[in-house]
Amino acid sequence: MGIKKIPLRQCVGCGEMKNKKEMIRVLKTSEDVMILDTTGRKNGRGAYICPSMECFKKAVKSKGLERSFKMSIPKEVYEALEREMEQFA
Question: Residue 85: CB partners within 8 Å, gap ≥ 6?
Answer without folding.
Answer: 24, 36, 49, 51, 53, 56
